[in-house]
Amino acid sequence: MIGPRVVSIIVVSIITATVLASGPLVPVELTTYESPCEGGSLSSEGNAVIQPSSIPESATLTRSEFGAEVWKLDVPDATVRATDVQGCVRVTYEISISELGITSLSAVTVSEESPEMLHVSMSETTLSPDRVSEEQYDAEVRLTYHGVENQTTVERTLIRRNITVEVAA
């Protein structure tokens, strides 16, 4: 009979060997996913027709639950339609609240394998409670296209909108 200590040593050894084999010292790739774009989310080596389908008109700052002393910025997803995609392009989604001195940015890579309608989500942003003092803030959201046209790198604002960020107590 094998004791619990021997089993624990075997399990820890297997986990350690896996971590070391797939870590930065030994380049063994254990995943099978291949990105269609060599640069990943920073790729903008192609071109496409990107049209904003929906962009939010408001966002909210909500006090975090479970006793955490932070405010969380919730920004609804933007939706874009991608057609005539060749290679890989990038679409960035940004919100700036100048009164709070914050800017949050998310990016999505669009390739031939991407669906025609894409949802672009804003990354989570938190603020300390002492920074939020008003009931609402003015903000700007912007969708930007990054690609290549006529062998020249292009960065074009697709849409820019002023919105209100409501503070939910």
Descriptive overview:
The chain has one domain: Immunoglobulin-like (Sandwich), CATH 2.60.40. Helices cover 11% and strands 49% of the residues. The protein contains one helix and ten strands. The model has no long low-confidence stretch (mean pLDDT 83).
Give a topology summary.
Elements (H helix, E strand, L loop, with lengths): L3 H19 L24 E8 L3 E6 L7 E4 L3 E9 L2 E9 L4 E9 L6 E4 L4 E3 L8 E14 L2 E17 L1
Parallel strand pairs: 2-10
Antiparallel strand pairs: 1-4, 2-3, 3-8, 4-7, 5-6, 5-9, 9-10
Which descriptors apply to this entry?
three-stranded antiparallel sheet; Immunoglobulin-like; single chain; mainly beta; 169 residues
Q: Mind telling me the CATH class?
A: Mainly Beta
Instruction: Write down how many β-strands occur, each being a DSSP E stretch of 2 or more residues.
Output: 10
* Radius of gyration computed on alpha carbons: 22 Å
Fill in the CATH topology.
Immunoglobulin-like
Walk across the major sheet and give the strand order.
6-5-9-10-2-3-8
- What is the N-to-C succession of helices and strands? HEEEEEEEEEE
| N-C termini distance | 60 Å
Parts with pLDDT < 50 across at least 5 consecutive residues: none
Main structural class: mainly beta
Oligomer: single chain
Largest sheet: 7 strands, mixed
Supply the number of structural domains. Answer: 1
Name the overall outline: flat
The number of helical elements comes to: 1
Mean pLDDT: 83
Question: In the CATH classification, which architecture applies?
Answer: Sandwich
Proportion of beta-strand residues = over 45%
Fraction of residues in helices? 10-25%
